[in-house]
Amino acid sequence: MNEEKFSGKADIYAKYRPDYPSAFLDYLYKEIGFNAKSIIADIGAGTGILSRQLLQRGSKVICVEPNKDMLVAAKKELDGFNKVRFIEASAENTGMESHCVDFVTVAQAFHWFDGKLFKTECQRILKDNGKVVLVWNNKDSDSPIIKEMAEVNAKYCKNFKGFSGGAKTGLEAYAGFFRDGNCEYKTFRNDKTENEEEFIGRCLTASYAPKESSENYQTFVRELQNIFKKYSKNGMLTLPQTTRSYIGNV
Fold this sequence. Notes:
The protein is 35% helix and 22% strand. It is of the alpha/beta class. The protein has a domain of 172 residues: Vaccinia Virus protein VP39 (Rossmann fold, 3-Layer(aba) Sandwich). The protein has a seven-stranded mixed beta sheet with strand order 3-2-1-4-5-9-6, with helices on both faces. A two-stranded antiparallel ribbon has the order 7-8. Helix 8 packs across helix 9. The longest helix is centred in the last third of the chain and has 15 residues.
């Protein structure tokens, strides 16, 4: 089941997964209509990376996450915020009240959902004219670094189907999810500069990456270390990355 893909990875996920650029958050709050009074359901919230950024802007956030490990980590990460609520549930059956949220956000998770069932659930829980925000941090596939990373993943990760679970990019990939095929597509630069520990740690957060108990774990890590040595300068490596968002009514 998809909710078990990240079991045992919550700690490294919370530590190494990148956040979303401030320009994207500014766009939500200045152009899309998010504000401090907004009630937002962050579906597939994981360890609460986007949830934290929304809470920091003053909004109320309901974190919906089916994986127990990830939800425990989210509660730990978001401890101290008083406008957050947690629900252990799937994206397709959140158990939330009907027409109770202004926005639904999905960060780095939509590709794991049943799109049709999730759309129906969004229609049920959103208030009138409420919008859905789908967002991904996508590695730039044309980069030599990213190409070598993909080769290593394909060699040592049996479930590797592409980064972000093989999620597609571009407006045409997700327009069909939105009402009448209408959505607003935006991109934001989100390059990340990391040291060796952070680079390897982030690679290990992937659902397909071998766990420490796997026989090919050490070999996988060594291959990543070789990539880091090849492309890093002064102990740091910049990974080219684009944040892509798709927003509209459903």
